[in-house]
Specification:
Blueprint: H1 3-23, E1 28-36, E2 39-46, E3 49-54, H2 63-82, E4 99-101, E5 104-110, H3 127-136, H4 147-150, H5 153-159, H6 168-185, H7 188-195, E6 201-203, E7 212-215, E8 218-221, E9 228-230, H8 232-236, H9 241-250, H10 261-277, H11 287-301
Antiparallel strand pairs: 1-2, 2-3, 3-5, 4-5, 6-9, 7-8
Helix pairs in contact: 3-9, 5-10, 6-10
Length: 308
Amino acid sequence: MTPEEIARRTELACEAAFTAASDLDLEVTDTEVLHEAFSVVVRLSPTPVVARIPVVHPPGTTAEQVEERQCRELDVAGWLHEHGVPTTRPSPLVPPEPVRQDGFAITFWELVETTPDHQAYRAADPEVAAALHLALAAYPGELPFLAPFNGALAAMVEAAEGSPLLSAQDVDRLHAQWHALAPVLADEDAFQARFGPTTVQPIQGDTPVHNVIRSPRGLVFADFEDVCRGPVEWDLAGLGAEAVAAYDEAVENLDLRRTDPRLVEAMDAARRVQAVASLCLVPQLPLLEQGLAPLVQQWREQDVTLRI
C-alpha cells in the first residue's frame, strides 16, 4: 500500500469508529489517532473512550475470525480488571462486544492516560510477565491452544513465498521449520506428548513486556487479541537469556514454575517462523519491512537444526 492508501485506510477507520460510537449514544465531537500499526487506535473526544480497529489481517482471515479474537480479548481483559490486575478494560459505557461498521470490526475501551515516558512497545521488566501469568492462570474461560501459531500462521507461511525479501533457499528453510514444528504444537495433546506434563495455562500470546501502557497509576497491561493457552515460554520468546533468567527469579516467590530450557528453545524457534512469515503482511503494513529485516537476517545466520 502507498502512504496515501494507508492514510485513507486510517481515515476510513476513524470515520467508522465515529459512526459506531455515535450509534451507541456516545458523545463524540472529535477523533484523534493515538497509534496505528496492525490496528488503528482512536481517541473519541470528549468521552473517555478509545476505539481499536484492526486493519492488517493475515491472508484468508474472515470477519468471523476477527470478531472471535476480539471477543476473547474483551472477556479476558474485563476479567483481569475485575480481579484487580492493572489492565485496559472494555469501556463500561457500551456493551463489551465488537461492533461492525463499514467493513471494520471495532472494540471500545476505557481511556488510559499516559505519562510523558510512555512509548509504544518499550519493554518493561520481565518480572511483570510473571505477575501477569500468575493472574491469568486463574482465568476460567475457554481459550484455543497457541492461537498465534495454530491460527493464521500456516497461511502466512504459504503467502511468504511471494515476498521479494526471501530467497528460494529462505522459503525452503521456512517451510522445513514450519513442518517440523506444526505437528508438535498443533494441540495440547501433541504438545504434552512431546514435552511431558508441562504446565500449560492462559497466556497473553504476544510478549506482554512490550504491551504495557505507562500511566500515572503505573504499568497497565494491554493488547490481549492473541490471548490463548500455551506454555509461558511463548510469552518470553525472543527476549533473550537475561530476560528469561529475570523471569525465573521473579517466579521463585510465586505459584509458578520456572521456564524449561527445551521450551524456551522451541518457542524461540516458533516465534522466528512467525516473524519471517510476517513478511507476507508488508504490503499491508510497509513499516514492517524495516522492523523485520534484522530478525530475518538473524534467522538466516542461526543453526537450521531444530532440537524439539
